[in-house]
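fold-stage: in
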Amino acid sequence: MGKKETESIVVEVLKTIYDPEIPVNIYDLGLIYELDFYEEDELKVLMTLTAPNCPMADQILEEVNERVKALPQIEDVTVVLTFDPPWDKDMMSEEAKLELGFL
């Protein structure tokens, strides 16, 4: 399986993870900035949160790590949290904006 296929599977998994305070998955919220494969089975997930003081930060990061690492295609995952650039609602998908009433 190639990186593109694996990336699609990773995205589908990320779409099952929700910020507990917002009824939209973290991928459509625009919290995932980058998926970078070091090797075909080693992945870095660069992501942010909706706010630097998010009380659920540890839980969300751990869930991303556990769910992605559970994929048979992924041997190792590194989740990197950044606030540069800061998240804003313009990073959300059209579906997320519609779900949250921004459209």
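fold-stage: in (second)
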Amino acid sequence: MLPSAVIEQLDPAADPSGQRPRRTARDWIVDFSCFLLAVLIGLVAADTLEQERDLPRVMEGIDQLIGALACAAVWLRRRWPVGLAVAMVPVGFVSATAGGAVLVSLFTLAVHRPFRYVAWVGGASAALQPVYYWLRPEPGLPYAGAVLFGVLLTAAVGGWGMLARSRRQLLLSLRDRARHAEAEARLRAEQAQRLAREAIAREMHDVLAHRLTLLSVHAGALEFRPDAPREEVARAAGVIRESAHEALQDLREIIGVLRAADSDDAGRPQPTLAALDALVAESRQAGMKVALEGRVTDPGAVPASVGRTAYRIVQEALTNARKHAPGMDVTVSVTGAAGDGLAVTVRNAPPAGDVPHVPGSGQGLIGLTERAILAGGTLAHGPTADGGFEVRARLPWA
């Protein structure tokens, strides 16, 4: 079943608020075209009335008056599609000049209502065709041919309307699915960011709780025993200093183990900027064309947390390039100095030809952005002018 929003677009009269939507410029053009078509068909039918010698002048005038009123009623087709179509069945039977309005009302019914309405109204109209042409023969056309033409015309108009309805339903359904897909993508991105923050909070609690507890205990002892021996005060101060130092070190290590694929990574040595050469060499052994430019002169001078973040950014960017641009040239640039910050850029050339679809949720770049922000820096990514892809990060280096 279609959503209620789609049903309201197919049938504006079904709006539960009771307020009619205003006609757009396109609606006015369509309505005027339908009115003009009904008038033109009515004028053609009016010419045939003059050829009916047995038809009195009064009946001819009544026929044209009914046809004019039927053409005017075409403007009500959006508000009452069923009522107008039902009313046009007897009107079309008694008035030849109302034929255009009958066809327009049947088409409108087929566009805005399900098949059962079209079947009843179109069937009634087709059933009256033999009687109509028996009472009012078409000049220059045999009886059987006139009946067959009328039935086929009715079926063609109804089928055309149902085809337009089906196409409209399909477009609205695809549009609705696209909106749902965009909403789900936003929810997945927000969920990934929320999970990353929750993991950070859990990691900080697990790693820092013990250190901060020691700090609190020894600081409290110094506060309540200001007259403690000098050796005890020095020992407590040493514990506080060592605990604070270790807490800061643990805090720096959190970012490196947060998004590890394996929980055992928390106990492994985390890579730094000095391991970037090994990462590039490993990628080259895997068949990638990687060029390392603008290296930092002394990678060991880069803070461990900053170097680890830069390493992870390059690692994720190389993985994405391998998946989405296999065999293309990749350029890695890491530049900077103490006080100026560290700039990391990974750029790959556009893929040649069609690339096989590789499953992926896109959460890797979201995680890199979170990692760079937590390190005090920024990260941006997107396509380049030549069709490639580039990841740019700026990290602080005090």
